[in-house]
């Protein structure tokens, strides 16, 4: 069955991770990067999870999972290694309409997590629909060889240009044309070379004389 690809806004939303090992830690870190408010429930938590709790980054309850832990939760992850506990988490989540991922068990999950490549605001997600997560990770790594940090800076330039054009009430079709032209005419390569003069020249030709890196507040190489 094909999955519906989506990016969720989890900013300040309560999320639950059941499990206290290295896999749970990876899920916690991803949720924190997305701005979620994370609670971890685990009978035993590894030191790095305890450190996050001590620093106030997560809430940690070192005890057995309870059905009440699902109350008020927006998204949950079961990563316990105990099939029975994972099934309970999945069932409780379904009962409350909570999105639940049971690690490595797509059949019990209402969503699965892709392998992701992050370059600043750019995120590239690769999924095999649960068939082979390791192959998804392999493809993600291959893409990472092609999509370097310069793409983050190029995206910052494009985002700044987009906002500048919107503030000038340029038609949406013109905005699309300008942004596409910047990408097609070598913006990424100029950014990678840290060629400020070249970027400014391209911006002037395509977007208008008042659009420069300084005007956009973008610094190359960051």
Secondary structure elements and their pairing?
Blueprint: E1 14-18, H1 22-33, E2 37-41, H2 47-54, E3 59-61, E4 75-78, H3 83-96, E5 99-102, E6 115-119, E7 122-126, H4 133-146, H5 150-167, H6 172-184, H7 187-192, H8 196-206, H9 213-216
Parallel strand pairs: 1-2, 1-4, 2-3, 4-5
Antiparallel strand pairs: 6-7
Helix pairs in contact: 5-6
Please state the overall shape, judged from the principal axes of the Cα atoms. Answer: elongated
Number of strands: 7
Percent of residues in beta strands? 5-15%
The CATH architecture designation of the largest domain is 3-Layer(aba) Sandwich
- Main sheet summary: 5 strands, parallel
Number of DSSP helical runs? 9
Question: How many separate structural domains?
Answer: 3
CATH fold topology of the largest domain:
Rossmann fold
Unreliable runs:
none
Structural classification: alpha/beta
Task: Indicate the percent of residues in helices.
Answer: 40-55%
Encode the helix/strand succession as letters. Answer: EHEHEEHEEEHHHHHH
Spatial order of the strands forming the largest sheet: 3-2-1-4-5
Distance between the termini: 40 Å
Radius of gyration: 22 Å
The CATH class of the largest domain, by name, is Alpha Beta
* Overall average residue pLDDT: 96
> Which homologous superfamily in CATH is the superfamily of the largest domain?
NAD(P)-binding Rossmann-like Domain
What would you say about this model in short?
With 222 residues, the chain is of the alpha/beta class.
Descriptive terms for the model:
elongated, alpha/beta, 3 domains, single chain, Rossmann fold, two-stranded antiparallel sheet
């Amino acid at each position: 069955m094909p999955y519906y690809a989506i990016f969720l806004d989890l900013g300040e939303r309560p999320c639950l991770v059941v499990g206290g090992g290295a896999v749970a830690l990876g899920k916690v870190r991803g949720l924190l990067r997305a701005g979620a408010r994370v609670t971890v429930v685990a009978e035993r938590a590894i030191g790095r999870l305890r450190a996050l709790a001590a620093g106030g980054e997560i809430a940690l309850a070192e005890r057995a999972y309870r059905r009440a832990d699902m109350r008020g939760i927006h998204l949950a992850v079961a990563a316990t290694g105990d099939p029975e506990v994972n099934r309970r988490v999945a069932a409780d989540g379904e009962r409350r309409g909570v999105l639940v991922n049971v690690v490595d068990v797509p059949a019990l999950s209402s969503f699965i997590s892709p392998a992701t490549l992050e370059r600043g605001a750019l995120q590239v997600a690769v999924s095999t629909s649960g068939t082979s997560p390791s192959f998804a990770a392999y493809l993600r790594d291959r893409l990472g060889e092609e999509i370097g940090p310069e793409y983050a800076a190029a995206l910052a330039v494009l985002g700044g240009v987009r906002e500048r054009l919107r503030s000038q009430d340029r038609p949406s079709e013109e905005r699309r044309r300008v942004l596409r032209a910047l990408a097609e005419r070598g913006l990424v390569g100029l950014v990678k070379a840290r060629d400020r003069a070249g970027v400014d020249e391209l911006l002037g030709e395509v977007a208008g004389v008042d659009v420069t890196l300084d005007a956009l507040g973008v610094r190359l190489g960051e």
